[in-house]
Amino acid sequence: MTPMFALVDCNAFFVSCEKVFQPRLEGKPIIVLSSNDGCAISRSNEAKNLGIPMGAPLFKIKEIVKRNQVHVFSSNFPLYGNMSSRVMETLKTFSPSLEVYSIDEAFLDLRSVPKSYLFSYGCDIKKIVKKWTGIPVSIGIGPTKTLAKVANNLAKKHPAGCYALLNPEKIEKVLENFPLQNVWGIGSGWSKKLSQFSINTALNLAKMDSHWIRRAFNVILARTALELRGVPCLSLEEISPPKKSLISSRSFGSPITSFEDLREAVSSHASSLAQRLREQRSCASLLSVSLKTNPFDNTGRFYSNTYLVPLVHPSQDTTTLIKAATLALEIIFREGLSYKKVGVMALQLLSEKHIQQPLFNAQNLDNSPKRKSLLKTIDNLNRQHGKGSVIFASEGLQKSWRPKASRLSPCFTQEWDQLVRVG
To answer: What is the pLDDT of residue 364?
Structure first.
């Protein structure tokens, strides 16, 4: 069978999630802010038409927001994650193979669908996803993943919300006018370099000799050129490969001065990393803790530091990671400063299957069956009842260091007392 891919992309996903449970927002200008209520990271079409750019800091667009009564929301990631899961589960009913590319994007394998039916099949997917989840999507279909991305770009402007690139003549016509910087994986940096060789459109790149591209640039760009030519080089990754590093980091809602508050934040980040390590069945060999004050503070007392802690044994145990992270914090903490951000990173990750156990078991070793069973139970409880239902004491209860979220909507799908009431 000839390969055929569909890229399904949720339209203004964070905004769409807010609108599902608040119909009064339909047709209104809406933006969703980044962590700490900083910048606009999702915009409705009405907000875009007002001239609000992506990534605009809230303080710079306050007048536009006030003058046009723009609805502003803090990021509600538990809600968005749950809605993403619903969309992905719906998409699984349309294809035996699915690659979750991001929280709001997925590739489908449609090689079994007759070519003459592909466009209408894409339209059916769009209708069902909207009906079952309330989330509007755009669908691009093509013989390679890169061409499916190109088609998705065009689908966002198409009345049907679906676009199919199925024959060479149509592909060439589209690529002739398709900006090079909009091609998946190219961006402005690569497009500037390629323009020096008179490669300014997607079609220019597709027609270049792939061997020359490999020699002059790299194999990744050569694959992109082949994909634009209709030669599949990228297959679906149904199982995401384990990440080689993990990070948990947030800016504080207000400056933090006390070591105790910082220790709570570091413990919370380390606990989050430990859970994610267990989810992907990895262990960390090295832990990094970074700390910094506000770089825009006019007092001139900017401070930033990072400390690496090698772990005696690669670990995914929450207690082990919290102890290591706290040790690093003690070393880099400086009294009398107002801190803006702290982060913890797990490095040198290894598969838990490849961990070599020490010859002499120490009493505090975290690989005992009882210990693993305890952590598994904690993970299950947090999965069933919501993140943070069971925490370690060092993470604290008040969490005064949490990011600012003054415009947070309810968790409509995960908290009983926040479910939508009808009647």
So the answer is: 47
